[in-house]
Amino acid sequence: MRKLKRKFAKPIKPWDKQRIIDEKGLIKDYAYKNKKDIWKMKSKVSRLRAFAKKLVSISNEQEVKERDEFLKSLYVKGLIKEDSSVEDVLALTVRDISERRLQTLVFRQGLTQTPRQARQFIVHGHVFVNGNKITVPSALISRKEEGLIKIIGVQVNRSKKANGKR
């Protein structure tokens, strides 16, 4: 049996007040399940930044092609604008990548009432992207797939009166 490696790095200072406040804001805004999910997104951003730093000092033709392909792939993923440069990749934050998560897109498109409800529908298998069931709330959705998100098998009540607490 193969042992899986971690997809995130824990914070160096576990009780850093500012980091804890920032993470609470992310949990509130994007309805992350736990801090581990935030740390995974931070690791993705840091890997993108590291690769961009490597591409900043370009010297030959091959590296120029690599840079263009890298920027094009980030544009397709929806993380940067079409006319962005490598410096814009270095400015990416966890909030930028959080906006591309399936859970956030389902909520932002008005398919659910809350981000938590979006997470529940995804985990329970009611959300389809391009005809494929996706049960991972943190799946990153490309620009192409963004308009192809559908909820099937659940009636969402969008009236304000139905939102009342019991």
Structural account:
The protein is mostly helical and 166 residues long. The chain folds into two domains: 82 residues, no CATH class; 53 residues, RNA-binding S4 domain (Structural Genomics Hypothetical 15.5 Kd Protein In mrcA-pckA Intergenic Region, Chain A, Roll). Helices cover 50% and strands 5% of the residues. The protein is built from eight helices and three strands, in the order αααααααββαβ. It has a three-stranded antiparallel sheet with strand order 2-1-3. Strand 1 and strand 2 form a beta hairpin. It is globular, with a radius of gyration of 18 Å.
Number of contiguous helices: 8
Strand order of the largest sheet: 2-1-3
Q: Approximately how much beta-strand content do the residues carry?
A: under 5%
| Average pLDDT | 91
Largest sheet: 3 strands, antiparallel
In the residues, how many domains can be counted?
A: 2
Supply the key terms.
single chain, 166 residues, mainly alpha, Structural Genomics Hypothetical 15.5 Kd Protein In mrcA-pckA Intergenic Region, Chain A, 2 domains, three-stranded antiparallel beta sheet, 8 helices, 3 strands, 50% helix, globular
